[in-house]
Design brief:
Length: about 210
């Protein structure tokens, strides 16, 4: 296998993975749809930074510990599950608090504007990605198969992960653009509460699924 054929084959695999709706999609759409453009791109960059880190760690053999050590995998799995459940529950609880607060339906919530920062979104995206052991397990299982014989493992691993990042950025740009259309329908506080309840439920469900090991 040449480096060129390896990159194209890996691009096909991770391209299909990128298009599959999941936690990343929910986070990006929710953040962008609420009008937090900077925060949405922060989430995107955080997720992709996590992907690049998993690729580098896999190439160095560090993530092999997750598959070789049951305890290490379980600790990361439960930490990730707790974080996702906490994030989802926080969204859900926040919608009920806002529901009882006296404000006009077409008001723009001030706290949402204040939270629109790249740094905050980056932390959320990076934490979500790095605390998902399934991403590490995927890279451990798949990445070595696309490293040609004789190639430098670290350099090739980072190059392959960069392909994944590039595809993720392209798809994320499509999601952010689509969310701008949704934003027109989310001007009322009621619509925003509904979005947060749906997204919070999805994120918490991912956490529960991760905890159950599905």
């Amino acid at each position: 296998m040449t480096i060129s054929s390896s990159l194209w084959s890996f691009a096909l695999v991770v391209g299909l993975l990128t298009l599959t709706p999941g936690l990343d999609t929910a986070l990006i759409l929710r953040t962008a749809a609420l009008g937090r453009r900077q925060g949405a791109w922060g989430v995107v960059l955080g997720i992709q930074a996590g992907t690049l880190a998993w690729g580098a760690l896999t190439s160095l053999g560090v993530t092999a510990v997750l598959t070789a050590s049951h305890l290490a995998y379980e600790v990361l799995r439960w930490a990730g599950a707790a974080y996702l459940v906490w994030m989802g529950a926080r969204m859900l609880i926040g919608t009920f608090r806002r529901e009882t607060a006296p404000m006009p339906e077409d008001s723009v919530l001030e706290d949402r504007v204040l939270e629109d920062t790249v740094a905050r979104g980056f932390r959320q995206g990076l934490t979500t990605n790095l605390l998902n052991p399934k991403v590490g397990a995927f890279y451990v299982a798949v990445l070595p198969q696309f490293i040609p014989a004789g190639a430098a493992p670290l350099a090739m691993g980072v190059l392959l992960a960069s392909v994944h990042v590039a595809l993720g950025l392209i798809w994320s740009a499509v999601l952010v653009a689509f969310a701008r259309v949704l934003r027109e329908r989310l001007r009322t506080a009621r619509a925003r509460r509904l979005l947060d309840r749906v997204t919070g439920t999805v994120i918490a469900a991912f956490g529960v699924r991760l905890a159950l090991g599905d």
